[in-house]
Design a protein that fits this description.
Oligomer: single chain
Helix content: 10-25%
Strand order of the largest sheet: 5-28-27-26
Shape: globular
Bound molecules: calcium ion
Largest sheet: 4 strands, antiparallel
Number of strands: 28
Number of helices: 3
Structural class: mainly beta
Distance between the termini: 64 Å
Strand content: 25-35%
Length: 376
């Protein structure tokens, strides 16, 4: 048995393309004979010869099974690709950490505030040239109507400093400086708003990164200020929080991610009065999560979670966890985005009725939009 490299001349002419010589490696004692035989065999004859041996028949069956499995998984992956490839902005060199969507100038089209920039939407998935954001390039930013005047306001959390609310004027500008309640202390790095006690005033769930709890619950007074009501969880290092009615009982719930040794997501089901039940933890690890947002991405009427992975396992991606309707989620579908994504927000940027995703890629100073293809 000796090894020899056999040159095989492959020449095919299709239009103007000509493919020339390539080399194949083969181990055989009679290379020349085999080459001449192979060149004269038809495809059918090749199969007939090859399948004479029981071992080759087994190999062929395994190969067919592999092809079937591979093609099935490709089809499943294609069906699962609910979002388009990310469309990414040029670098702003502002290294945006957080992003929030909303109609800030009241023209009915979704806008963005990201990394110190205000991007007014055109309603077709594109944006006008960026304006400076009056909210500044804060660590975390959310938008809601905190003083109930029908105009979107912005709440910002500088890293480990107190939450400030800047009331919107309705034309894309805000009253500055923001309202800060210095009596509420903590180390916020993320927050989410919702009316937890059903009094018509928006409340806040704020992560308590370096405290002894996961989240502080702050009940709104309806004028852009809040009072501390309670705390949730016992894990510190909470980095992301989201609010929605995950189990569909009419009470808002809180989802929170903490950098504990287990890297798990906790869901606190709301009682409708500002108090919450003990945490239910997702039974699998999710990897590093920088931010979370909520939307019904698959349009089954159940709130789903969007999460971004800045670093670690599965980093540089945005994932969607479809809700099951009982406060738990099915496994993540993830999509690659830019370098070190830290913020995620949800909005229908192309106006087709399906919630899209926007992600800030902090380390490259860009914003990526992923359009939801499930619009009917
Ligand atoms: Ca307002
Ligand atoms: Ca409230
Ligand atoms: Ca609920
Ligand atoms: Ca859903």
């Amino acid at each position: 048995m000796n090894s020899k490299r056999i040159p095989i001349e492959v020449r095919a002419v299709t239009r103007k393309a000509v493919y020339h010589r390539r080399e194949a490696s083969c181990i055989t004692s009679e290379p020349a004979t085999l080459t001449s035989k192979a060149s004269s065999l038809s495809l059918g004859r090749l199969f007939e010869v090859a399948l004479r041996s029981p071992i080759n028949r087994l190999r062929f069956a395994l190969y067919c099974a592999f092809l079937l499995l591979f093609s099935t998984s490709v089809v499943q992956r294609a069906a699962a690709q609910q979002f388009t490839e990310p469309i990414t902005s040029p670098s702003s060199k502002l290294y945006p950490r957080s992003v929030v969507s909303g109609d800030f100038d009241g023209d009915g089209k979704m806008d963005l505030v990201a990394g110190g920039l205000l991007l007014l939407g055109k309603g077709d998935g594109t944006f006008k040239p960026p304006l400076p954001s009056p909210a500044g390039n804060e660590y975390y930013v959310i938008a809601s109507d905190f003083n109930r005047d029908g105009v979107l306001d912005i709440a910002t959390a500088p890293q480990f400093a107190n939450v400030a609310v800047s009331l919107g004027k309705g034309d894309g500008s805000f009253q500055l400086p923001g309202i800060t309640d210095n009596r509420i202390v903590g180390s916020p790095v993320a927050m989410a708003a919702g009316d937890f006690n059903k009094d018509g005033k928006l409340d806040l769930a704020v992560t308590d990164y370096s405290g002894t709890t996961s989240v502080s619950v702050r009940l709104g007074k309806g004028d852009g200020t809040f009072k501390l009501f309670g705390h949730l969880g016992t894990d510190n290092n909470a980095s992301a929080v989201a609010v929605a009615d995950f189990n569909g009982d009419g009470n808002l719930d809180v989802a929170c991610y903490t950098y504990t040794s287990t890297y798990k997501l906790s869901v606190f089901l709301g009682n409708g009065n500002g108090t919450f039940q003990a945490a239910t933890k997702l039974p699998w690890r999710l990897g590093d999560i920088s931010s979370m947002a909520v939307g019904d991405f698959n349009r089954d009427g159940i709130a789903d979670l969007a999460i971004v992975h800045g670093s670690g396992n599965g980093g540089n991606s945005v994932g969607v966890l479809p809700g099951k309707g009982d406060g738990t989620f099915v496994t993540e579908q993830s999509y690659a985005v830019g370098n070190y994504p830290t913020g995620v927000a949800v909005g229908d940027f192309d106006g087709n009725g399906a919630p899209d995703l926007v992600v800030t890629n902090r380390d490259e100073g860009t914003v990526s939009v992923l359009f939801n293809k499930r619009h009917h």
